[in-house]
Amino acid sequence: MYKKVIGVTIILFASLFSDAQDQKVNKNKPASIALKASILNFKKTPLTEGLTVSTPAVGLQFFKGIAPKLDAVINLDLSSLKYPYYVSLKQPKASNNSVYAALDTRVHLKLGDDNKSMLPYAILGLGVAKDAENFTAYAPMGLGLQFKAKQGSFLNLFGTYNAEATKLTKMHMNYGVSYSFPLKLKEKKAIALPTAPIQVDQDDDGVSNENDDCPERSGLLKYKGCPVPDEDGDGINDENDKCPNAEGTVQYRGCPVPDTDKDGITDDKDACPTVAGLPAYKGCAIPDTDGDGINDELDQCPTIAGIAGNNGCEDLQPKLNNIAAALKFEIGQANIANKLLQSLDSLVQIMTQYPTTKLLITGHTDNTGSRKINEQLSLSRAKKIQEYLVKKGLAVNRTSILGMADTQPIASNETMKGRAQNRRVDLTIQY
To answer: Which of 182, 211, 241 is the last residue of a domain?
Structure first.
């Protein structure tokens, strides 16, 4: 059977090529390469051990038109399968998939030329295949349909009956689709004999007009007759510009003005070019005029050294301690002596000068009398001071009072002098 198939195939090939001699050269189908996808469908019979019945394959096709209605094609199929040999051939049963490669030459006999948008054709060819163990031969024959695409490409739909051409060959069907791309070859250009050039140099720069990209401006040969470029447009040509891609100044040889301290203020405008600063201070850091460690923007007293707790102003507690040193009381009394009023008035002035501060007023007694009486008496002394300050204009919510009785003596209660020191009021500034 397979010998008959080969004989018929050869006869048909000879007939087709004989007809092709009478046809014009096909100018519509240049050499093309196509990507192909297909299904290999093997016939299953009781005489086969074939574990593979249907499997996908990929491949390539090469097309070359040899006549308006006749194309020569080289076809390659690759797949992975267990090749289904006949039992009668005593071939061992395939246990694993192996690579199956099939290569054939075929012709497409078309019912028209390639100018048609859709064109049926017949397929006839002869090929060989190789699996893991053996070579086989087959004869593809079938039908196809060609669709014209853009720029010389074609889409092909086809189906072939791959007839058995050797004893080992297993007849199968191949259904597939391919898309071709033309292989454009460069046309040979005729060699033209050179003519004597007429040298014209319009701008007299030594570069003839035919080679001069700037024929109306004098330039240099190295720049094709154009002037030396200034890529960044800063007025300094690139040959003299150390920073040709960044706009700069002559002073810095074409580079931008530097910013040494990276504070965003260029050195020509920076009064402190090596120390990062702010525009408000001409590139310098925020000053600390009184040197108290609190910069002037946060310092409420920028010319007088102070403390952070008082927003840069002076420590008020020593002044309050001096005022409190005079706030002494008679035994069992809470009245303020007239001689103390001037000191309290100065306290109001201090508190007014520093409106964000508050005042803690703490009353004390000596150990004369009971604890209960002393607690009330110490609170009354603090309250008297508070009332006077409020009367003089100090907001009541800026003051607070405590009565500590005789629990915090500053001198011995064993002597009259010590008890006189303990009958007092302490003043504590609160920032």
So the answer is: 182
Identify whether residues 12 and 153 lie together within a single domain: yes
Report whether 45 contacts 61 (CB < 8 A). no
- Any residues with CB less than 8 A from the CB of 274 and at least 6 apart, and which? 260, 261
CA of residue 362 relative to chain centroid, distance? 65
What residues contact 44, with CB distance under 8 A and at least 6 apart? 50, 53, 84
The reply to whether 51 and 102 lie within a common domain is: yes
The residues, ordered by sequence, that sit 6+ positions from 207 with a Cβ below 8 Å of its Cβ are 201, 219, 220, 221, 224, 225
* pLDDT tens-place values along the chain, 431 residues long: 545 544 544 554 444 444 444 444 446 688 999 999 999 998 777 666 656 788 999 999 999 989 889 999 999 999 998 887 776 677 777 778 889 999 999 999 999 888 899 999 999 999 999 988 889 999 999 999 999 998 889 999 999 999 988 888 888 899 999 999 998 755 556 666 666 566 788 888 788 887 888 887 887 887 887 888 888 888 888 888 889 888 888 878 888 889 898 888 998 888 889 888 788 788 888 888 888 888 878 877 887 787 887 778 888 999 999 999 999 999 999 999 999 999 999 999 999 998 989 999 999 999 999 999 999 999 999 999 999 999 999 999 999 999 999 999 999 999 999 999 999 999 999 98
Q: Is the Cβ–Cβ distance between 90 and 102 less than 8 Å?
A: no
Q: Does 25 share its domain with 164?
A: yes
Boundary (domain end) residue, out of 182, 202, 236 = 182
For residue 311, being part of any structural domain is answered with: no
163 and 228 fall within a common domain: no
- Note the pTM of the prediction, 2 decimals: 0.41
Residue 131, in any domain of the structure: yes
Q: What six digits make up the tokens of 26?
A: 């096909």
Question: Based on the structure, what is the number of domains in the chain?
Answer: 3
Task: Tell me the C-alpha distance between 235 and 217, whole Å.
Answer: 17
What residues make up the domain containing 141?
Answer: 2-182
